[in-house]
UniProtKB/TrEMBL annotation:
Residue ranges, annotated region (Disordered): 1-36
Domain of life: Bacteria
Capsule synthesis protein CapA domain location: 46-328
Pfam families attached to this UniProt entry: PGA_cap
Source species: Burkholderia pseudomallei (strain 1106a)
Protein name: Capsule synthesis protein CapA domain-containing protein
Compositional bias segments (type: Low complexity): 1-12
Family (UniProt): Belongs to the CapA family.
SUPFAM superfamilies: Metallo-dependent phosphatases (SSF56300)
InterPro entries: Capsule_synth_CapA, CW_Biosynth-Accessory, Metallo-depent_PP-like
Amino acid sequence: MRRAGAPRAGGRTEQFDGDGRRARPSGARGDAMNETDDAPLHARVRLFLCGDVMTGRGIDQILPHPGAPRLYERYCRSARDYVRLAERANGELPARVDCAYPWGDALAELDRVRPHVRIVNLETAITTSDARWPDKAVLYRMHPRNVGCVSSARIDCCVLANNHSLDWGREGLADTLDTLRRAGIRTAGAGDDDAHAARPATLGVAPGRRVLVYAYAAETSGVPPSWAATPQRSGLNYLADLSSVRATQIGERIAAQRREGDLVVVSLHWGGNWGFEIGDDEHAFAHRLIDTGAADIVYGHSSHHVKGIEIYRERLILYGCGDCLNDYEGIHGHQPFRPDLALMYFPVLDAGSGALVELSAVPMQIRNLRLQRAPADGKAWLHAVLERESRRFGTHVSACDVDGLHVHW
């Protein structure tokens, strides 16, 4: 076995079977129903990835400790308006719920699959700060005492390199980092200065096995240059462009830092909120990260709906994971993109090579501000869209009654 670094100290440690093995079905590459039963723990690593987790605004208002509801949007001036919109669309919500409520059926899926590592893109500040970013209208904020909404799903790493982490200024970012640290949750893509923001989250999955998460916020997702961390100020790990030169620089830097045996996830918050198009620059950038030996998974997000999936040189590229949790119920205008639908992605990597072995995706629907298993029409829509958008890359999707969608290549 190749040597790797030590697992992380502190925080939650994943529990493993006493024999060091995880029971799985057996069989061929690219089929989640056919994984080898007795593959030793060190041979494969299973991850949970999802798109934007937006637990601020309306969701925060139904949690045990709602923050100040004031908003600065054109049409909604209170976060409670989003609760009323959800109730108008799908019926009355409980007056107050526990912190695990928004995850709904997703918790059972996580218990069933038992991923070694759980990574989300957290698109909200966790703060009570009222110092909003000047001239920014759409703001997400969750009260720090509601951090259980993240920890209840046993999330290992929150990516913060996105266009909402500084909604409530640098004070809000500091609160977010501190709250997650106190909860034992690692962060990536934001920090007290540029060195901190560029530092990967290091996740121990077993003795001698690490997953590293690097995160970048691209200008193309609407992140302003003023949010970039510098040696003198806090901020995000900012990506000014998607040039080949930039990709090579990042790739070589990561490749030089990773240890033999590490698995690396590169998180990219890039592109617009709506539209299935994948730019040539995004395509080339993802390929270059893999070509330089930096990335085993390119984890893309920003679009509020799923986008195509590519397997390149046995590495997974998720161009857009879509939203996982949001408060968009009752909002009209983007129904053709089905922002009510979400996917839980479960890639399995060969621990020795970093190659993708399997990929399954479990369809969910956001209803009553919580995740529930997607109905038949929602699952069919996700299946059709993923197949259509991934076909250009030679990737195909099939449906299974047991655990949703399987990706083949």
